[in-house]
Design brief:
Keywords: Ribonucleoprotein, Ribosomal protein, RNA-binding, rRNA-binding. It contains seven helices and six strands. The chain has 209 residues and is of the alpha/beta class. The model has no long low-confidence stretch (mean pLDDT 92). It has a six-stranded mixed beta sheet with strand order 2-1-3-6-4-5. The chain folds into two domains: 152 residues, Ribosomal protein L4/L1 (Ribosomal Protein L4, Chain: A), CATH 3.40.1370.10; 47 residues, no CATH class.
């Protein structure tokens, strides 16, 4: 079984903790991780760009001049894409960039990324983090005690802790996630993953099924 260090919020190492083999020691599937990350990034795209075709532009119902005999090129509408103020040819229209992924793929990608983080020594546990009130400096001090002040860190909580969330949100290199919301992209986008111990148990229950 893979082992990771468990610390208290003062940075003192308490013990080595064994993690679930099926979650943190799985076979790494780079292809699935790539698919899942691409799908997550695609889902963030708005797809709201919109243009009007000649059928959507106001006006142009009457033929501008007769077909023959004028010496000019024939035209059927002043809203043709050839005219100033006319429609746009093959312009963008609102769409969704979402890609379908199965639950099995998402879980496989998560297990692959978590396994990789453990192998690279980029995952640690903290027994608990208790803050009396929202205070950014308190989280900065905790990260400094864990020697993580210069790293991009994702902090995984078992449930929403308003004091911790508010304290960490103003730190540029720190992101907080709930155990039920972890995803492959955010784990890969950060150098270190810090789990509050209870959050690990919740992840193991879900991904170890």
């Amino acid at each position: 079984m893979p082992q990771v260090a468990k610390f208290n919020q003062s940075g003192k190492e308490l013990e080595k903790v064994e993690l679930n083999d099926s979650v943190f020691n799985d076979k790494i599937n780079k292809h699935v991780v790539h698919q899942v990350v691409n799908a997550q990034l695609a889902a963030r795209r708005g797809g709201n760009a919109s243009t009007k075709t000649r059928g959507n532009v106001r006006g142009g119902g009457r033929k501008p001049w007769r077909q023959k005999g004028t010496g000019r090129a024939r035209h059927g509408s002043i809203r043709s894409p050839l005219w100033v103020g006319g429609g746009i040819t093959f312009g963008p229209s609102p769409r969704s960039y979402d890609k379908k992924l199965t639950k099995k793929m998402r879980r496989l990608a998560l297990r692959s990324v978590l396994t990789d983080k453990v192998e690279r020594d980029e995952l640690i546990l903290v027994d608990k983090i208790e803050l009396d009130q929202p205070k950014t400096k308190a989280v900065i001090n905790i990260l400094a005690d864990l020697n993580l002040e210069d790293k991009k860190v994702v902090l995984v909580m078992p449930e929403k802790d308003e004091n911790l969330y508010l304290s960490a949100r103003n730190i540029p290199n720190v992101k907080t996630l709930l155990a039920g919301s972890i995803n492959a992209y955010d784990l890969l986008d950060n150098e270190m993953v810090v789990f509050i111990e209870e959050a690990v148990k919740m992840v193991e229950e879900v991904l170890g099924e």
